[in-house]
Design a protein that fits this description.
Layout: H1 21-28, E1 32-36, E2 39-42, H2 44-63, E3 67-68, E4 74-76, H3 77-83, H4 85-88, E5 94-97, E6 103-106, H5 111-121, E7 130-139, E8 154-164, H6 167-188, E9 193-196, E10 206-213, E11 219-223, E12 229-231, E13 252-255, H7 262-269, E14 277-286, E15 289-298, H8 305-312, E16 316-319, H9 322-329, E17 346-350, E18 359-362, E19 368-373, E20 383-385, E21 403-417, H10 421-424, E22 427-429, E23 435-437, E24 439-446, H11 447-458, E25 475-479, H12 485-500, E26 505-507, H13 514-524, E27 528-532, E28 540-545, E29 551-555, H14 559-575
Helix pairs in contact: 1-11, 2-6
Organism: Limosilactobacillus frumenti DSM 13145
Family: Belongs to the class-II aminoacyl-tRNA synthetase family. ProS type 1 subfamily.
Protein name: Proline--tRNA ligase
């Protein structure tokens, strides 16, 4: 391919609003173009990378027994009303009406649609298990699109679904998909961790996330050198609390004017922050029902909403606003506490609260706190549990200290169970002739965000550095001076020889200065660069490895074999 025929609008500077390295370099290298906030065009180079990612995905999914199909992006709202997600999914859902005033959505994911197809198509366990998937654009009305194509309103995703008549079928499909995902990410050449994860709005209880460590990652991975890894929402650590032995003192109410935070209350009362209860009021929703829930923490701990949601078994958990706090407790956030709270508010407390004696807490009276509050004597706790975020350095279940790193979610697999099939009526006759709900699994990969994740891990100050498996081209051939016939002739001969050997070649035939060509080549990030320069008359070219910057000189007739060896070495490095 001649570079003069490609749309590659490289830039010397990145846009001022570009924060992430991947965003900056993909703009500068001419891979992406912003149409509007969170909406991007994938220019020819990016599109070639996407197609290579898709090819790897299709290959590994086929090996795992999954079959590709395609669903519509425009979905009837009634289907989502059946599952309950039309109301609970949130503001990220694109809602629209057709000319007959019927409600539709742009699909952010397709659990309901796939489930409805299986419901109407399969009636017997003999047709199961079945795994189907698609590669399709999804639409989510992100409030803050950021980091280029990492978080946008439209993006390509693999979403796959398994359907089984029993748990054994689900387990087998899940394990096959888990291995397929490892194979996909290994072949792409991205560094990733497989972590315990929260299912969020997807439903189901068992899930694993594939996360790529990166500075701009919006998730926190808690991991150890012993192999433990979990999303911060699911991470646990060994309980190290010790029962306090002080005698319970008399409950007293103290004025704490202007103390709205734990630290402010601690300073006002002259107490340690961890002896003060952080009392947070939430509203838990399940279907159309809602319930106020107070969660108690030590002052310096943070509430883990995912753990609370799991403990309650609710669909949605939302921090109560001031109006709700006043309605149920008679005070504003910052002055809330469990003393005197009625049975209409459920109270959960973290395990570390159980060992405390003579705690301070909000008095449900603005500007006042209690001191010497004790469990059972002064307030009740309906349920204890692990409801806190772990902290770096704590001991993980495997006995090793926890470390934290930001990560980008690139894949997620779920054991959904009957979460959707029961609601949508997807049933089959089992081997005993009984109707049973189909048991589902769900499997997703962020295809376009993979480009950002790879770029975050591999790009340098000069541009992108693509792994050989997904690079837009294998080799970049650059004749330094296109006015020199011998350079042009050799470049064309190399193009033909490399193409005949099965490599994809980009030839920079532009009438540009050598410095411009080299700078653009580094920006584009093709693994191997072959420079045809002053020694062309002697039949010698320079080969540069983009990843390492190492250069070697070889004879023209040795180029194909040398490229073969270098690309094999790069592939082996990516696998390791």
């Amino acid at each position: 391919m001649k570079q003069s025929m490609m749309l590659i609008p490289t830039k010397k500077e990145a846009p001022s609003d570009a924060e992430a390295l991947s965003h900056k370099m993909m703009i500068r290298a001419g891979y992406i173009y912003q149409v509007s906030a969170g909406v991007w065009s994938y220019l020819p180079l990016a599109y070639r990378v996407i197609r290579k990612v898709e090819s790897i995905i299709r290959d590994e999914m086929a090996k795992a027994g999954a079959v590709e199909m395609m669903m519509p992006a425009l979905l009837p709202a009634d289907l989502w009303r059946e599952s309950g997600r039309y109301e609970t999914y949130g503001d990220n859902l694109f809602k629209l009406k057709d000319r007959r005033d019927r409600d539709f959505i742009l699909g952010p994911t397709h659990e309901e649609t796939f489930t409805s197809v299986i419901r109407d198509s399969i009636k017997s366990y003999k047709k199961l298990p079945l795994v189907v998937y698609q590669l399709q654009d999804k639409f989510r009305d992100e409030d803050r699109p950021r980091y280029g194509i990492l978080r946008g309103k439209e993006f390509e995703m693999l979403d796959g679904y398994s359907f089984s008549a029993n748990q054994a079928g689900l387990d087998k499909s899940y394990d096959l998909q888990a291995q397929a995902y490892r194979n996909i990410f290994d072949r792409i050449g991205i560094n990733y961790k497989v972590i315990l994860a929260d299912s969020g709005t997807m439903g189901g209880k068992n899930s694993q996330e594939f996360s790529a460590p990166a500075k701009i990652g919006e998730d926190i991975i808690a991991y150890t050198d012993g192999g433990y890894a979990a999303n911060i929402e699911k991470a646990t650590s060994k309980f190290t609390g010790k029962q306090q032995t002080a005698e319970p003192a008399k409950l007293q109410k103290k004025p704490t004017p202007g103390a709205h935070s734990v630290d402010e209350a601690a300073e006002s009362l002259g107490m340690d922050a961890d002896q003060i209860l952080k009392s947070m009021l939430f509203v838990a929703r399940t279907g159309e029902d809602e319930e106020p829930v107070m969660v108690l923490m030590r002052g310096n701990d943070e509430v883990n909403e995912a753990k609370v949601t799991d403990a309650l078994g609710c669909d949605d958990l939302e921090l109560a606003d001031e109006e709700v706090a006043v309605k149920y407790l008679g005070a504003h956030p910052g002055s809330l506490g469990p003393v005197g709270v009625g049975d209409n508010v459920k109270i959960l407390a973290d395990n570390y609260v159980k060992v405390l004696v003579n705690m301070a807490c909000g008095a449900n009276d603005d500007g006042h706190h209690y001191i010497n509050a004790n469990i059972d004597r002064d307030f009740r706790v309906d349920q204890f549990g692990d409801f806190r975020n772990v902290k770096e350095g704590e001991i993980a279940p495997d006995g090793h200290p926890l470390k934290f790193t930001p990560g980008i979610e690139i894949g997620h697999i779920f054991k959904l169970g009957t979460h959707y099939s029961a609601k949508l009526g997807a049933k089959v006759l089992d081997e005993n002739g009984r109707q049973v709900d189909v048991i589902m699994g769900c499997y997703g990969i962020g295809v376009t965000r993979l480009l950002s994740a790879v770029a975050e891990q591999t790009a340098d100050e000069n541009g992108l550095v693509w792994p050989d498996s997904i690079a837009p081209f294998d080799v970049h051939v650059i004749p330094v001076n296109v006015k020199k016939d011998e350079q042009v002739k050799m470049a064309n001969e190399l193009d033909e020889a490399l193409t005949d050997a099965g490599y994809e070649v980009l030839v920079d035939d532009r009438k540009e200065r050598a410095g411009v060509k080299f700078a653009d080549s580094d920006l584009i990030g093709i693994p191997i660069r072959v420079t045809v320069g002053k020694k062309a008359g002697d039949g010698i070219v320079e080969i540069k490895i983009r990843k390492t910057g190492k250069t070697i000189e070889v004879k023209q007739e040795e180029v194909v074999d040398t490229v073969k060896i270098l690309l094999k070495q790069l592939a082996d490095q990516n696998q390791n």
